[in-house]
Design goal:
Layout: H1 2-7, H2 19-29, H3 39-62, E1 65-67, E2 73-75, H4 79-95, H5 100-110, H6 120-130, H7 139-154
Antiparallel strand pairs: 1-2
Helix pairs in contact: 2-3, 3-4
Length: about 160
């Protein structure tokens, strides 16, 4: 993770007090996602998080409801901008793959699924795209191909062959 701090530097227009937060966000991206991250998006996320924490501190100190002009209680004037900031933060976190669901979505596109999670159709497509007539697939792939072929002959879905690990 140390290399990620060196790859993306905070932009010049980002206040110095936010540089550490920027570096923490870059570190959270990890080496696989750094190349796809936009410096502007990371800086925007850093600014929004800072603004949201400042607004939240004010709301926490003054309460969700404050006295209005006529003396009645009204919702705090910062609640609406705070909710907008949180929505934008979630959108940027998703875009940058900082949330667990977004990370799975993005990494799933970057990394192939493990063989045990690969469905029959995906397995057959991988076989078609990877090997030609002169290539011989590895023994575990051949065993699975044979199991699929046998199941198709019987008209049943194929069971995965057991492999020794």
């Amino acid at each position: 993770m140390e290399t990620s701090k060196l790859i993306i530097a905070p932009p010049d227009d980002l206040p110095k007090r936010l540089h550490q937060r920027f570096r923490e966000t870059v570190s959270a991206l990890g080496p696989l996602l750094i190349g796809s991250a936009s410096v502007e998006a990371i800086a925007r996320l850093t600014r929004l998080r800072d603004e949201a924490s400042q607004m939240q501190a004010i709301v926490d100190a003054e309460g969700l409801q404050v006295k209005g002009r006529d003396g009645g209680m009204v919702k705090h004037r910062l609640l609406s901008p705070l909710n907008k900031a949180r929505t934008e933060i979630r959108r940027l976190e998703s875009e940058l793959a900082l949330s667990p669901a977004a990370r799975r979505r993005v990494l799933g596109k970057l990394l192939p699924p493990p063989p045990e999670a690969e469905g029959e159709q995906a397995f057959l497509m991988r076989m078609l795209l990877t090997y030609d007539v002169t290539d011989t697939p590895p023994p575990e792939d051949m065993a699975r191909l044979e199991a699929i072929a046998a199941a198709k002959r019987k008209g049943k879905p194929a069971k995965r062959p057991r492999t020794r690990h």
